[in-house]
Amino acid sequence: MSTELVKNEISRFLASKTPEVLCIKGKWGVGKTFSWRRYLQEASQRTAGIGLERYAYVSLFGVNSLDEVKYAIFEGTVKKDQVHQKASLDTLKSTVESAEGFGRKYAWLANLIPGAKSYLSGAAPAFFLTVRNQIVCIDDLERKGSKLESADVLGLTSFLKEERGCKVVLLLNDEALASPDRQKFEAYLEKVVDVSLTFAPTAQECVSVALPDADTDSQLIRDRCSSLGIRNIRVIKKIERLVRTIKPLLQEDAEVFDRATSSLALIGWSYYQPDEAPTLDYLIHKRPKSLFGLKKSQDTPEKETAWNALLDAYGYMSTDEFDLVLIDGVRNGYFDPEKVELHAKEIREKILAARAEGSFEEAWRKYHDSFDNNQDEVLDGIYSSFMKNYNHISPLNLNGTVSLFRELGRDAQASEMIKFYVANRDESRKFFDLEEYAFGSDITDPEIVDAFNAKLATISEERDLPALLLRLKDGWDGDALAALATMPVDEYYRILKESSGQNLRRIIAGALQFEGVVNASPAMKEISKRTKEALTRIGEESDVNARRVTKFGVHVKKPDLEIQSEAAPEASGAE
To answer: DSSP 3-state assignment of 446?
Structure first.
């Protein structure tokens, strides 16, 4: 039922004085309670918008007895011009004193209110005497305590209508009721409820409710959430928090932020609503197989078929290492700035590569975006683009491409692409170490595995010393320390000169972290010594560099300039 029809029915219900029961059903998070409160507030601002003089809201979350329900209704009652306020001691006293026929006769109830909780079991029936001729909203029936049955709640609802002249609205997710209780609920529902509505707003309506602001970020999040069909307002708000949390880390790159927002909308939905969204396991491990046609149709569950169609329309090809960083952030509740910055740079390069004429992504679009009988044209285009854009293609995408070519009878070209890729990728040992690669278990082509292992064996640790130095801040082993302790000062100098930004800060922090280590090993001391010698050489190159290196405890003396050393970093290696 559209939100407009629900709104009209609620407005009619509120304006009428006739006792009746309205039931509004809907899934969790679609905004039943939010919409009810908004329409109630709007009605309170209209003349004759609310027909009865008093209103009470009660949630049954964890409530285990009818006495508790009765007292909660009494306690939550306010005058109709106070519906925008939360019930308080002041509103409670005023409603008791103004209750029809009770103002004087039962004035003593108002005096019991401050200590009413301690008299709950005995006083609840007396307090409940004041509840009549008013609107009562009973929410969260499906979350009630185990000792309270839905049949009892419906019985109370009927009593309020028939004996107390009340108008009662029930808000619930009937699908979440436990099976035996649900059967009882459905059996009594028709006898008690006058009007039953199903609240099922569209995704666009839900995101508009959750994100009403007109700023650019809100518009971007609205677009992504509605494209995925997310209708849980709480989930949408959590996605919004994720996006706004990561934005300062990507402030200077709008396109990477846009890419992160698209991924976070999907990842957040998967994490917070796994019963409806594609699971994280599917996104990480199974989506690539479906994307490249490696999973046979008979092995694909129906829900995964639907997920594939959704992800194709959304434009989510497969999970990469940047997405893994985002997934970790969602799970941990925070994003690692260093990891975000490191992988955001890779995404920036991929975005630039995708813009180029004949890009790899463009070539694959001819495969995904039509059912033309153009196999040779598609494969020729992918091959040509692969040989041109190999430097921006991940090992996982290499595996998918090679597998496609093998299945379609182009084994020779598949092998040629592997040889070309491995020979021309000038990368560190880590790149070719499939045990280190986040998606190493998904590299299934034996020739790729053999080629990567062979290339790995040819890359000495010495060649990969820059990577060892970069990772030093995160930890080390004896072999790494030994290799870095014997690395020439010239190499330290070269690495420091060629590094910049976050990488430069990490290298220096890692190399100098041993300065304050008690009982530092000879290798640790040598690493610090050689780093400082390289920094000294850099400081001697110019006045500005002489000043820059002082914060690392390096004092450079020059004939025309003497720099006073600033405080060196603490032993922790903080950047």
So the answer is: helix
Q: Is 358 left (phi over 0), alpha (psi -120 to 50) or beta?
A: left
Cα–Cα–Cα angle for 303, 305, 308, rounded to 5 degrees: 110
pLDDT of residue 290: 65
How far apart are the C-alpha atoms of 481 and 525, rounded to whole Å?
Answer: 10
State which amino acid sits at residue 11.
S
The pLDDT assigned to 572 comes to 41
Using CA atoms, how far apart are residues 184 and 174, in angstroms rounded to an integer?
Answer: 11
Quote helix, strand, coil % in the chain, to nearest 5.
Answer: 65, 5, 30
Q: In angstroms, rounded to a whole number, what is the distance separating the alpha carbons of residues 433 and 427?
A: 11
Element holding 21 (H helix, E strand) = strand 21-25
Within 356-477, residue ranges assigned H as helices are: 360-368, 375-389, 395-407, 411-424, 429-432, 446-458, 465-471
**Residue 146 host element (H or E):** none
Cα–Cα dist 320/266, whole Å: 14
Three-state DSSP class for residue 224: helix
pLDDT at 563: 46
By the 10 Å C-beta count (0-12 exposed, 13-18 middle, 19+ buried), 282 is classed as: buried
Q: Are 251 and 269 in contact (CB under 8 A)?
A: no
**Within a 10 A sphere around the Cβ of 345, how many other Cβ atoms?**
16
554 touches 569 (CB < 8 A)? no
CB 34 within 8 A of CB 24: no
**Cα distances (Å, whole numbers) of residue 291 to 66, 284, 316, 446:** 55, 12, 10, 20
CB neighbourhood size of 424 (10 A): 10
Distance CA 400, CA 368 (A): 13
Question: Which pLDDT belongs to residue 166?
Answer: 96
Mean pLDDT split into 10-residue runs, the chain, 575 residues: 84 96 90 90 92 93 92 89 70 58 50 50 67 94 89 94 95 81 80 91 89 92 95 94 94 87 96 92 81 56 83 87 93 89 80 64 79 90 89 88 92 95 85 87 92 87 69 76 87 89 85 82 90 92 89 75 46 40
CA distance 575 to 571: 11
Task: Specify burial of residue 164 (Cβ count, 10 A radius: 0-12, 13-18, 19+).
Answer: middle
Please state, in angstroms and rounded to a whole number, the distance separating the CA atoms of residues 506 and 468. Answer: 11
Element (H, E) at 237: helix 233-246
**CA distances to 8, 39, 285 from 193, in Å:** 18, 20, 48
Q: Which residues pair with 73 in a beta bridge?
A: none
